[in-house]
Amino acid sequence: MKKVLSATMAVAMLLSMAACSSSSSSSAAGSSAASSSAAGSTSDSTAASSEAADPTAVGDVKAEMRMIWWGSQTRHDYTQAAIKVFEEKYPNITITPEYLAWDGYWEKCAAMGASKNLPDLMQQDYKYITAYARNNQIIDLNPYVESGILDLSDVSETAYTPGIIDDKLVAINLGMNTYCVLIDQDIFAKAGIEIPEDTWTIADYEAICQQLVDKKDELGIKYADSVGGFEIETLQYAFREKDMYFFNQDGSESFGWDKETGKEIILAHMLREKEWQDKGYIAPVAVRQENSVNGIESNPIVKGECAMFSYIWSNQAKAVSTAAGKNFTMVAYPSETEKKMQYMKPSQFLSVTADSKYPDQAALFVSEFTNNIDMNKELKAERGVPIAGKVREALAADMEEGSIDKQVFDYVGRMSEIANVIWKPEPQALGTIDNLRKNMLVSILNGSDPDQAFEDFYTLALDEFAAQA
Amino acid sequence: MAQSAVRPAQGKQQNFSFSKFINNENTVGYVFIGLFVIGFLVFTVYPLFSSLYYSLTKYDGLSAPEWIGLKNYTRMFTTDIRYQKSLLITFIYVFTSVPLRLIFALIVAMLFKNGGRVVAAYRTLFYLPSVIGGSVAVAVIWRQLWGYGGIINKMFNAIGLIEGDFSFIASESTALATVVVLAVWQFGSPMLTFLAGLKDIPVSYYEAAEVDGANGWQRFWKITLPCLSPVIFFNLINQMISGFMAFTQAYIVTRGGPNDATNLYVVYLFEKSFTSRQMGYGSAMAWVLIVIVGIMTAILFNTQHKWVFYESKGGK
Fold this sequence. Notes:
The complex is a heterodimer. Chain A is of the alpha/beta class. Chain A contains 21 helices and 13 strands.
């Protein structure tokens, strides 16, 4: 009896496995002819560059591709609409979308990667591109840029460099974000303070804070700047100011500094924050603690309790403005000198996988995704501000003058000219190190002994690195 | 050709054995429990033992696990100070929230013991927090109540204990207390078991005690508590186990902060496993938690003969 049952089970298992693999085998069979013709122009990059393949010819090849991404329902709808635009332009190419939420995305991709069945096009994250590139699961797109299939002529360097791993362009940035300071221009006007330039320094920031604090009661604010939670980036900028990096840039699980220098920079940075807190420039630690859990929509700036909200991503400005029912002014984060420390963060990337049978067509899709204005009108900049200048202009032209969307576009456009280059992706230990750093900062802001706080942080951080390495 | 003549007979025999097989009570039984057994093996037994294996490895969830022996376990008790702090906080949490919740549940159950229809409605109302207590909406309300300028803050202002704005959630000294209060507030399920237990106590005991002149307090101590002790024991074990596994309240109200003040065991386990992707270390933590809960349960079971009163054993 048991045997019969187990046999039935086994048959059922076999059937389900066959169903899983059938889709991949059929697409492989149908594509072998096409891929052999495409292989000539891709595997040999010198040939490709000399011939300069014609994008329209590439688009005429019949190709069935798959694309996978993570995101919300809005993103799924927008992306599918954009794919439709692409398919209308290139009727021979069809793209089957696969989409899911961030939870589970990487597990699914890892499983597909293991069975050499990754979709042709894969949305990538900055954290993961190094691993995928070094495992040779995503391909170098430089040959396609040289052959003209992938057009990056309208893209600034800060926008595509994050996708370069080991001199290979393995991923194309789909949208940019950068940190900003939100300013309540009404309170500034009331206080008679001019809106600062993007090039403002920390000395300017302190002076403005002092002016605001002096007129605190008159302006009805509790402190000058609510600051977000306890973002790690400010500390990382402090290291960049000294031309160092907080985390090691060689990809190992370690800091980019020795204990003595690091301690000096960290304590100077955190004690200055304490000074700001004591002077009333920034919100007290408990308020920031609440901010970090409550989310940006309930930031004190929404209730008019402060004049500035530094440290927020440009794509979050809209949410804060909506919550407050008014537009705020966006300026860059101040740095020690006029040189900006903040970088342009790629919101996510698009990569062509090594499992793709149609790398030419996939590269063409990436190019269209970047440059095609009609496609980007469907995408509605939901992935961040587009990297191609013309697309940005076209989208901005449709926006209402003075709207927060337009401000975000203008701001990101302005910053892409002056921003610093991004550092290498953070190590695996980031999550815990960030919590340790937060604990150290909170202790110092609460008046604990800074040396002891640093020692605790350092010992635990080394332990964490050791566990990761 | 001769074979074809035999075939029907063979078929008949096969049919016969198949129908016998399919109608066999054992088969039916196996089929009915089959789904559960498969689910249990695949989703409980297999993960259980693979986590035991992972706890002896370094595993990030992406690349293959790497055998490191007992290193995860030694790390917990030697270098990882945050783990030790988290363990301490969890014990404080369990030893405060569980007794408080049970006392609260018992008080409310006593109030509802003799009641009509209105009480039934109240019973449902008081059970509600247990259902919705782990939800994000409640966490948001909790943050409003206990946060800056929240109602609790204003109440303390009014009675003059605190001056100005104070956030109970964001202050290291009071954050854990807010989480404990949230846990106590979810007293619904022990309350229901207490109610059932109270109804089981024969009224004649009370009548006899009243005739003997026992007052309310004496009746509670001498009758209610001893007769209720098996239910108390049951609730204590259940609540203690869920107390050690508490996650949602601390995670959504305070995210383990400020400065790890509410970093309960499972919250820290979650951080290690999913934020830092140290699945091996997380698994090891989970196994230590199993051992801790096991020991605590064993202690309770071994001390029950001292205070739990079972009628069926003749008061032993």
